[in-house]
Amino acid sequence: MDRIKICHLYHDVLNLYGDTGNVVSMRKRLEWRGFEVDVTDLSFGEFDRNVKYDIIFIGGGQDFEQGILTEDLFKYKAGWLTEQIENDTTVLAICGGYQMLGNYYITDKGENIKFLGAVDFYTKASSPRMIGNIVYSTELNGASPVAAFENHSGKTYLGKGVEPLGRVIKGFGNNGEDGGEGARYKNVFATYGHGPLLPKNPVFCDSILLTALKAHGVNDLSELDDSIENAALKNALALYG
């Protein structure tokens, strides 16, 4: 069986609210099904254009963390990451990592910070912060809603050809205005859902894994005992009201 390669980009900087748990969840759900998994952490100055990853994960961070890595992003990774996205690599990006994939970010002082531009959207600072529990529906999850936590001051607006990842049931989502949450472009999954997101949303996690595994000829995943994960989701939904 092929080895599945996961890249955790800026693992040491973008890990707000335990976003690393998403990588752990993907790895364990693959290993429980018999896959061998390599997880590569990439930070400042590190990347290898010759490695073909199956999944690239980018976590969330505060404005400070996003600011200090911008130089590295454009110096080493911008072309590579854009190429990976256009070549249908599966990407999961959370909050700050989500915003980085877009065109730019307008700060509360009116400064325009250029970002990657790999996906057509932009973000602008707003007040008050959009913070709290979020529940959203997505066709990737069937009838089960996704539960997570959001904390962002940026309002994100999607461009042409970019669909929201889901529709907000409770919370703010992209901008608190249009009911959209996150973004879908090619095999990119972008969301404001922290959490970590995947451990308590196993169906959603498997949807992301299947997107990546199709390149290995895998179109279905064996069932796992998700009783604990589903209980956590049920409790979260009950708490969220």
Characterise this structure:
With 241 residues, this protein is α/β, with parallel strands linked by helices. Strand 3, helix 2 and strand 4 form a beta-alpha-beta unit. It is globular and about 50 Å long. It starts with a strand and ends with a helix. The mean pLDDT is 92.
Gyration radius, to the nearest Å? 17 Å
In terms of DSSP E residues, the strand content is 25-35%
Largest sheet: 6 strands, mixed
Are there runs of 5+ residues with pLDDT below 50, and where? Answer: none
Number of strands: 12
Give the fraction of residues assigned to helices: 25-40%
How far apart lie the N and C ends?
Answer: 43 Å
Strand order of the largest sheet: 2-1-3-4-12-11
What's the mean pLDDT score? 92
List the helices and strands in order: EHEEHEHEEEEEEEEHH
- Helical stretch tally: 5
* SS class: alpha/beta
Morphology:
globular
Identify the notable features of this structure and list them briefly:
single chain, 30% strand, 12 strands, 6-stranded mixed sheet, 5 helices
Question: What layout of secondary structure does this protein have?
Answer:
Layout: E1 3-9, H1 20-31, E2 36-42, E3 55-58, H2 63-86, E4 90-94, H3 96-100, E5 104-106, E6 112-114, E7 121-137, E8 146-158, E9 166-170, E10 180-181, E11 183-185, E12 188-191, H4 202-213, H5 227-240
Parallel strand pairs: 1-2, 1-3, 3-4, 4-12, 5-7
Antiparallel strand pairs: 5-6, 7-8, 7-9, 9-10, 11-12
